[in-house]
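dumping these here so i dont lose them again. two proteins, back to back, each one seq then C-alpha cells. dont judge the mess
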Amino acid sequence: MSEFESEPIRGLPGRLPPGERIIWQGAPSFRGLALGAFRIREVAAYFAVLGAAKAFGVVAAGGPWSDAALEFVGMAAPASLAIGLLAGLSLLCQRTTVYTITNRRLVLRFGMALTKAVNLPFTVVESATMKVDRAGVGDIALGLKPDAKVGYVALWPHVRPWKLARPQPSLRGLSDAAQVAAVLAATLAEAKGVAPAPAMTSPDRVPVQASTPIGVTQPA
C-alpha cells in the first residue's frame, strides 16, 4: 500500500510500464456502499427497535399511549443524524474510489482523507469470489496467497467483511458486479495461462471463473 499526491493516470499512482494496459476501470455505487459497507439499513432497524422498546416501556409502566408515541418519535432525530452521517461517508467514499484492472494487476485507489493505492499483482491472487444481491449490485473478493500480507483496517471498507486473519481485498458495491467478474476472470485466465480455479467458496458466494456469464446473479 502506498500514499501519493499526484495521479498521472486516473486511479493509478504512476504511469503504466511497457506492456501493461488498462482493461477496466470503475467505482463502487453509492447504494452498494451505503447498504453493504456502511450498513445504513441495519442502523435504521436498530433505532426503530430502540424506539419501539422505549415506547413499550412507557406502556408497560402504565403511561399513556401519547407518551409512548413521543418516545418512539423521539428517536427520529438521532436516527436521522446517524443515517445522514453514514450516507455522507458512503458518498465521499464512492467519489474517492477507483478500481482498475490491468492485464497484470488489480489496483484499488481510495482514501477519504489521504489517497492510497493498493497494487495486487495477479501473481499473488489465489482465488476470487462474487456476492451480488437481487438488483445485481455486489462485491468481488480476492483471496491472496499466504505470503501476501495486507491489513484489514488499512483496506476497509474495500475488504471482505470479517475476514480478519487473512484479509481479502474487495471491489465493493459494484452496480455491474457480474460483468466485472467476467472481465476479471478472463484477465486472470490470460495472465496465468489457465482458467483460475478459486479454492475459496461459501454458501452466499460463487467463484469467479472465466466461464462466469454476464448477467448471472447470486442473491445475497
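---- next one ----
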Amino acid sequence: MNGIKLKDQPASERPRERLAAYGADALSNAELLAILLRTGLKGTNVVEIGRQLIQKYVSLQALAQASIEDLKKVKGIGRDKAVTLAAAFALARKMAEEIRREPLLLDTPDAIAGLLREDARLRQVETFQVVLLNTRRRLIEITRISEGTLDTLLVHPREVFKPAISANAAAIVLTHNHPSGDPTPSEADIKVTRDLIRAGQLLKIDVLDHVILGRASQDRPKDYVSLRELGYWAGF
C-alpha cells in the first residue's frame, strides 16, 4: 500500500471507518496504531508505519516499554507520534490501575491473574506482591513487597503480613511474575509459599494461594500457575 494515502482508500478499508463500523476488535494492531499516528510520511501509508512498529518490537508489551527516543528511530515516527503512543500506553496502564482499585471478587486464581496480568507483562524483573482481601474475598489493595533479579527474590514473612495486619485483611494471595515467561514454580517459590502459609496460620490470616504469572505458549495455554491447584496446600 506504499504510496496510497488513507484518504484515497475505500472507506471500508480505512482504519477509522472500520472501527466505527465494526468495533476495535475487528482491527489489527497495526491498524489501531495507525489511528493513533493519524498521518504518515509523504507517499507512505500510515498503516505501513504501524506494521513497521509491530515488526520491530514484535509485541505490544515491548512497544509499550520503548522510550520516546527509541520510537523516534522508526521511519515516520517523530516526536509528536512517539509522545502520542507513550500517552496511549500510559492511559491503558492507568485504566488497569483503576480496575484494580474496584472492590473486585477475587476467589479464583483466574481472577487474580486477570487482575495482575497487564502489570506483570511490563515488568522485567520478578516482583513479589500480596493481594489483600476482606472476609468476602474482595480486594482491599495490592501491596508490592520486593523486587528481585530474574531468578532471585527475597521475601520475609514480616514484610508480607505487616500490610495485611494494617489493612485488617482476612486473607491474602501471594503473587509474583516470571519474566522468562515460564510460570513453573522454583524450589525457592515452593519454600517461600510453605513458610508463609505457616506464618499465616499463626497470625490467623489465610494464605489462599500463590499465583505465578508468565506467558502462555503453544504447550501451555494458561499464562499462570496456581500453587494451590498444583497441590502445595496439602498437609496444611
